[in-house]
């Protein structure tokens, strides 16, 4: 089994799918000649040419608008938003057009569009290269919001994204691009959406988390295991719609829950998860549902010390785990 | 304005009822006339409609408790409305309320319980006293789910007692145990090799009734044999004609007819023994034991002496089928003066039935079988049946009981053929 990094998992899967399906094309800022600022589309321009790997103007609204039009007419566009921080100008296209297309046409039109967006902090990217955007888009029905965190999941879910007929916001944590490596089987497979994965089995506390925080949590779980605290780590992989079943089953088993996400704490993705647990597993709870998340400041700061203060990490997660286990 | 839900009087002589099941829980919205609870009286379950629309604010009588008609069971009102303290419920004399007093006051100084712990305490019926023995390992001594799990493990497997000399140990067996302990319902299986099926209200009623009957009435069973040739001949000749009138004629109808004739001849059997004297009933109301999926039930043919064979057959079919469908009205299992049980349909030859209190006798009918019998010193093959009468020896002497059954026997053996 080959070992790939997260970024290699993206590139290989795009290449494999483009070879298979001539209707697939990529558009975005610097995706062509440059091969993407993170090199996610490296080699694709050379292999598939300028008609299938199209450099776009610096206009996110038009990148998505072009994608929507092409999808409506039968193509399979992959739109790259260079940094998720820049997605805001395309908000109207994504929410008002793409996500509602099937619903408002009563199923007559579909919009199979993949929007790839590198997100997240911890790479000294400062205010405009560190943001997490999942909460805003997970709120929108009609849109899949997925955030695979390992090469295996990235390959399986990107393949799956090419096989669903609705828009997909495909979030890739930029810090994990070269940090996270993993085995990817030679045999072809997909990872269906809306299926959470137990990344570590345990009995005392359930942690629900994704992206870079998944890896921080796995480290924290390793730390507290030496203190006799058994942690179960649930990676939802698809942030919306959620696999409630897997989450609730784990909560019912352990009775204690920690939700970890990197975005600002308030009104975040984890608030919804906490509400679901309180509503549907109340009688199984042995402690309050807790969250570890970024503080409520306007953005991830640039200064290294301040960035460290902002980012949740294994240390902070382990502290919360100890607190919960003792409750 | 709060409205009380009261235990209704289900039938003329029904003075108490058992709360079978609450169909609504506290906090639920109920509409007027919407079923709010099930009440069980003598094995018949009746849905009680809500007297008003509103929110169910309080349930005063728990499931399984038996109370007198007129007792306040629950209060309905506007959400959040304060509930005036209700008068203490009047428990009926015969059955002790099982779960009316479960709302135990919170102990002062007890750490608050987490939802899962609260649920487990309720599920495993952990008492306040038991709870006090659990040492909480959570923050500030809070009892955690794990503490409770550990407690339940040790509770399920009691540690082996130290050896004590035999003379120091109390005797074992039911005889040596306090009555309350013997009669206390088992709440948890002792090991994985057993399983507990919770008592349904019907099963509980049957059990209580059987024990009570055997306690109050000294039972004697006398067995006689009857030749059914003439009944069978009549039956063969007439059942098609009955069928045309839409009635399936069963043998039970003939036995009811015979019992009615015998009760008319011996009114003392159609009576109840009381301390004040023997109560002789003017009505002849025959109860028919019907086996249902949930248990035995005894619907009553009122004024059976006023019914023809056709009328009896129709009444038996109607009561039996509605008993199996659980559609009997409470008064239809009330007021019997004598009972007939036809266990012959299950192949039994004869049994020793238990008297349905407060009646004085019960007739058991076995299977009709062809047997070799001696008539005028000759062997003959005849369809025979054993008639077993269990009677209350306090008011019926053996001679009277036997004469009574002989009357039934003659009625069957001399059955008119037209």
> What is the share of helical residues of chain A?
25-40%
- Give the helix tally of chain A: 13
Averaged pLDDT of chain A, please? 97
Order of helices and strands of chain B: EEEEEEEEHHHHHEHHEEEEEEHEEEEH
* Cα gyration radius of chain A (Å): 19 Å
Number of domains of chain A: 2
Tally of domains of chain B = 3
**What shape does the CA trace of chain B take?**
elongated
CATH superfamily of the largest domain in chain A: Thiamin diphosphate (ThDP)-binding fold, Pyr/PP domains
Which whole number gives the mean pLDDT of chain B? 83
Class of secondary structure makeup of chain A = alpha/beta
Quaternary assembly: heterodimer
Query: Helix fraction of chain B?
Result: 25-40%
Largest beta sheet: strand ordering of chain A:
3-2-4-5-7-6-12
CATH class of the largest domain in chain A: Alpha Beta
Radius of gyration of chain B (Å) = 28 Å
What's the topology here?
The complex is a heterodimer of chains A (327) and B (418).
Chain A: E1 3-5, H1 6-20, E2 24-28, H2 44-48, E3 53-55, H3 60-72, E4 76-80, H4 91-98, H5 101-104, E5 114-119, H6 134-138, E6 144-146, H7 151-161, E7 168-173, H8 176-179, E8 181-183, E9 197-200, E10 205-209, H9 212-225, E11 231-235, E12 238-240, H10 244-254, E13 257-264, H11 269-280, E14 290-294, H12 304-310, H13 314-326
Parallel strand pairs in A: 2-3, 2-4, 4-5, 5-7, 6-7, 10-11, 10-13, 13-14
Antiparallel strand pairs in A: 1-8, 6-12, 9-11
Chain B: E1 3-6, E2 16-22, E3 29-30, E4 35-41, E5 44-49, E6 54-59, E7 66-68, E8 72-77, H1 115-123, H2 128-133, H3 145-156, H4 179-183, H5 201-216, E9 219-227, H6 229-244, H7 251-265, E10 271-274, E11 277-280, E12 286-288, E13 290-292, E14 295-297, E15 300-301, H8 309-324, E16 338-341, E17 361-365, E18 369-375, E19 378-392, H9 398-413
Parallel strand pairs in B: 12-16, 16-17
Antiparallel strand pairs in B: 1-8, 2-4, 2-7, 3-6, 4-5, 6-8, 9-19, 10-11, 12-15, 13-14, 17-19, 18-19
